[in-house]
Design a protein that fits this description.
Structural class: alpha+beta
Radius of gyration: 19 Å
CATH architecture of the largest domain: Orthogonal Bundle
Helix content: 10-25%
Strand order of the largest sheet: 2-9-5-4-3
Order of helices and strands: HEEEEEEEEEHHHHHEE
Number of domains: 2
Distance between the termini: 28 Å
Shape: globular
Length: 268
DNA sequence: CGCTAGTCCTGTCTGC
DNA sequence: TGCAGACAGGACTAGC
């Protein structure tokens, strides 16, 4: 569920916990641990030096060689709760007890997400594509990863090894903003279309962050509250509704196994 | 190597 | 009201 803007929103709110120490980590469901390169107990008593995001991953750094990494999958949530408040919801898999009267709650109904206890972060992320909001993500780079490719441009945007952080909602929205049909082969885009798509990707991701993410169903921020971008979606989830630009009905097809929304009149 | 379809899970909504 | 089937912000893998 959560894409780059949602995870970024959570990470920014979590920054208030920098400098706090981990009292205890309660892993309620062991199989949520996808990789364990060190014992959980090594984290106890450690100070959280930094909290950041890489693609759709949420990264805590309680030590140089101790990274605590979460992925929220489709239905994951990560929020703060005052220590006195006992969480009562279902599917809570991890609780991080901090020494600043805060508990961090990791919840994931469908368990497509997971937790990684990783020593070498660079190595863990070695296959990740460039960050779309970084200066390294240029129109030339986008052109490089699309050229010669026969796969639909949307599929390529969703490929985390090429670009990290774009998911189903922002892929559809970026392609609408660029006026490009999602099923166009990556290699068929002109230089001008690549430039337009590059700008559109960055624009919709920035808007998503500004509006604190998109809550379609499950997503909640670090305060367990909904985002705001769902009110500004132009095509995603708007099948058979009028295009906000031209009034034609929004079409829906299936690409890479995912629902894909576009306007046949505005996107070519 | 590039690409697609199937798979992992639980919950909710739709239509009969 | 019950029940089957479709569908959901993701990403690995097996196989063509």
């Amino acid at each position: 569920m959560p894409e780059l803007p949602e995870v970024e929103t959570i990470v920014r709110a979590l920054q208030v916990n920098r400098g706090a120490s981990i009292k205890n980590i309660d892993i309620r469901r062991k199989d949520i641990l996808r990789l364990q390169e060190y014992e959980v107990e090594e984290l106890h008593g450690r100070t959280i030096k930094n909290i950041c995001r890489r693609g759709k991953f949420l990264v805590f750094e309680p030590g140089r060689d101790l990274n605590l990494i979460f992925h929220l999958g489709m239905s994951g949530r990560f929020y703060m709760l005052t220590a006195a408040r006992e969480p009562v919801e279902k599917h809570i898999h991890v609780i991080v007890h901090l020494d600043n009267d805060t508990n961090l709650i990791y919840q994931d109904t469908r368990r497509f997400g997971g937790v990684w206890l990783v020593r070498d972060r660079e190595h863990f992320f070695r296959h990740m594509g460039r960050e779309p909001l970084s200066t390294s993500f240029t129109a030339a780079y986008l052109g490089d990863i699309l050229k010669q490719r026969k796969a639909p441009v949307k599929n390529l945007l969703l490929n985390q090894h090429l670009i990290s952080g774009i998911g189903n909602i922002y892929a559809d929205e970026a392609l609408f903003a660029a006026g490009i049909r999602p099923n166009r082969p990556g290699g068929s885009l002109s230089q001008q279309e690549i430039k337009k798509l590059h700008r559109s990707i960055r624009k919709v991701l920035r808007q998503g962050i500004e509006l604190r993410g998109t809550t379609f169903r499950d997503y909640r921020d670090a305060f367990n509250e909904s985002g705001g971008f769902q009110n500004y979606l132009k095509v995603y989830g708007r099948y058979n509704q009028p295009c906000p630009q031209c009034g034609n009905l929004i079409q829906r097809i299936r690409l890479a196994g995912r629902s894909t929304h576009f306007c046949a009149n505005c996107q070519h």
